[in-house]
Design brief:
Keywords: ATP-binding, Nucleotide-binding. One of its GO terms (molecular function) is ATP binding. The chain is built from 9 helices and 12 strands. With 262 residues, the chain is an alpha/beta fold. The structure holds adenosine-5'-triphosphate.
Length: 262
């Protein structure tokens, strides 16, 4: 059994259909998972389930030993760091980056009357530096680029020192240089001594950072395959998942995929 996250026969039903369909999935401590699949496959729904932000219609979700629905989800939230564009869009543009990260300790998006000590300040600045945006700490959220926003969002998600870090399409919208720099930061994070268990959602094999250990392939709400990266990430599986014949190549710890030329 996964000691971090366990989904047992989990179904989410919306609009008369199963958008997550009888999913079994287990994440153990120290594993770093990629959820890969086409548009509408159910990736965001899975990450929302993993973050106790969405409840299953049927089946069981267990996070850090607590069964969702039988425990107070708001007590689980500080243990789960979540970075997503949806969360970024709730941060006021006038908020300074230092506060954007500090407020992550309380799971709020606007600095109000929370109390922070010197250790919190140092941690926020340290996390911004780890994500390569330390020199921007006093800038406002509205004044930074979309790539920088992604980095700040991850620093914010790390602020409460979570047991699990969930990243919903962290490289979406980044240019090639921005994506590769982010891949480098995530590789460093993944190899860190105190790295949390991680789950990253993407549509693209090029956005799988080095150091990620497992892949869950999803299509139409159903798991096609899941397990160690090298076992699951094959041209055949990828072609099946995206509905087009693809050739997968591995260079070092990174992947690329192209349409198969016949
Ligand atoms: N509240 C809802 N009511 C009806 N359908 C929904 C609802 N929420 C999500 N869906 C549908 O469920 C499916 C899975 O959505 P989800 O956002 O999890 O997919 P995704 O794999 O993250 O997609 P994308 O890659 O495009 O972001 C989609 O077809 C979506 O339209």
């Amino acid at each position: 059994m996964g000691d971090v996250l366990e989904l047992q026969q989990v179904t989410v039903r919306r609009g008369g259909r199963n958008i997550v369909d009888h999913v079994d999935w287990s994440v153990s401590e120290g594993e770093r998972w990629v959820i890969l699949g086409p548009n509408g496959a159910g990736k965001t729904s899975l990450i929302q389930l993993a973050g106790a932000r969405l409840f299953p219609t049927t089946g069981n979700v267990t996070i850090l030993g607590e069964t969702v629905g039988k425990t107070n989800a708001s007590e689980l939230h500080p243990l789960i760091g979540l970075a997503s564009s949806a969360l970024d869009s709730r941060i006021p543009g006038s908020e300074r980056l230092h506060d954007v990260v500090r407020t992550g300790a309380y799971g709020v998006t606007v600095h109000w009357r929370e109390k922070y000590d010197e250790e919190d300040d140092m941690r926020a600045r340290g996390l911004l530096a780890t994500m390569g945006v330390g020199e921007l700490a006093d800038r406002t959220f509205a004044s930074i680029s979309s790539g920088e926003k992604k980095r700040v969002g991850i620093a914010r998600a790390l602020m409460p020192d979570p047991e699990i870090l969930l990243l919903d399409e962290p490289a979406a919208g980044l240019d090639l240089g921005g994506r590769e720099e982010l891949m480098g930061s995530l590789k460093t994070l993944a190899h860190g001594d105190f790295a949390p268990s991680m789950v990253l959602v993407t549509h693209h094999v090029e956005e799988i950072p080095a150091g990620f250990t497992h892949v869950l392939l999803i299509k139409d709400g159903t798991v096609l395959d899941s397990g160690a990266v090298d076992d699951v990430l094959t041209s055949e599986n990828l072609s099946d998942c995206f509905g087009i014949k693809l050739d997968l190549e591995k260079t070092g710890e990174r992947y690329t995929a192209r349409a198969h030329l016949s």
